[in-house]
Design goal:
By secondary structure, the protein is of the alpha/beta class. It contains 13 helices and eleven strands. Strand 2, helix 3 and strand 3 form a beta-alpha-beta unit. The chain starts with a helix and ends in a 5-residue tail after the last helix.
């Protein structure tokens, strides 16, 4: 590790937070994350399973001074673009432009109310409308035209798209300020995702390149088997947007069984029954999990990748048998970060 210490990692660390705890606790977690070197927090938007995301972001921004706070991620179906533009502009105003709008096609926030995920074209149109409003310009809503009349000056609100498959990844790289790769952490998976980013970037009209983040289910424990078990549910969630034909043999069979029986009502649970369907091989390909040394090696491989700007750690959710998030962060700060 000595050579790694001589060359600090290029990328930054983000933290995913689930609103399964009171907002005051989430704000404390965010402040702790800021104090140990995280650059951002990404708050899950799933209205029946988690606390309201925009209120949570406001509390986090009020309790921090440097940290960026993002929807991690919202979707275009339940939040009208005028509502989202006003919310993001307000968060940016109160925080000195530390708000990020993360968006995707949606998963648990829609499935739990019986709605299908958004289409990629809907995401693209939604982003265009939000950007128009954030510039202070008028946007059309059917036969009506409206703008954010209260806006004193256009805020800086990066819009980042979470992407799993090739079409969304290419779209994100073409139109967004950033892309969150939610498609595995094994070298071949990262390389595939970055290839899709390059494809989309080739058709990009925006001068700056998109920022690239990797969504990383994360768990640290002295016993590697315990670390895998704690993060298995987070890997299960990631696999719900994967294509079974990306896998072979027992892994493909496991993904097919998982997608057929996934209980979306327990998407934000620490240890749902469906997590047992995820084999260790897929945990190893989708997560940074294990002993302190294993976590250091896995994180450094991602953080030092020249094409990755941020790694967003998605830790096990506090629950039966799982340590609280503040302990997760303190263990990371004590056992892992000094070596990075």
């Amino acid at each position: 590790m000595a050579a790694d210490c001589m060359n600090p990692p290029r990328a930054r660390l983000g933290l995913a937070l689930w609103g399964t705890e009171p907002v005051a606790a989430l704000a404390r977690h965010a402040a702790l994350a800021e104090s140990i070197g995280f650059d951002s927090v990404w708050v899950i938007d799933s209205q029946l399973l988690c606390r309201e995301v925009t209120l949570t972001l406001a509390a986090i921004l009020a309790q921090t001074s440097r940290l960026k706070a993002a929807t991690g991620v919202t979707q275009p179906i339940t939040r009208h673009p005028s509502v989202m533009a006003s919310a993001m502009a307000t968060l940016a105003e109160m925080s000195g432009n530390r708000a990020i709008m993360g968006i995707g096609t949606g998963f648990s926030s829609l499935r739990t109310i019986g709605l299908p995920q958004a289409k990629i074209a809907e995401v693209e149109a939604y982003i265009a409308t939000v950007r128009t409003l954030l510039r202070g310009d008028a946007a059309r809503f059917g036969d009506t035209e409206g703008r954010l009349s209260w806006l004193d000056a256009p805020p800086t609100v990066p819009i980042v798209i979470a992407a799993t498959g090739p079409r969304m990844t290419r779209t994100a790289a073409r139109i967004a300020d950033g892309v969150v790769l939610h498609q595995g952490l094994a070298p071949d998976m990262v390389a595939r995702g970055l290839g899709w980013v390059r494809d989309g970037q080739a058709n990009r009209a925006i001068a700056t390149r998109p920022e690239v983040s990797c969504w990383a289910p994360y768990s640290l424990a002295d016993d590697p088997a315990e670390a895998r078990d704690r993060v298995r549910a987070r890997v299960a969630g990631a696999l719900m947007n994967a294509r079974p034909n990306w896998f072979e043999g027992v892994e493909r069979e496991a993904v097919e069984r998982l997608q057929a029986s996934y209980d979306v009502g327990h998407h934000a649970s620490a240890a749902p029954d469906h997590a047992a369907l995820v084999p260790d091989s897929l945990v190893d390909r989708y997560a940074v999990a294990g002993t302190a040394e294993e976590v250091r090696v896995g994180l450094m491989r991602l953080l030092d990748h020249p094409a990755i700007d941020r790694v967003i750690l998605n830790p096990q959710i506090s629950g039966a048998g799982a340590p609280p998030i503040d302990q997760v962060l303190r263990d990371l700060a004590r056992e892992v970060l000094p070596e990075l």
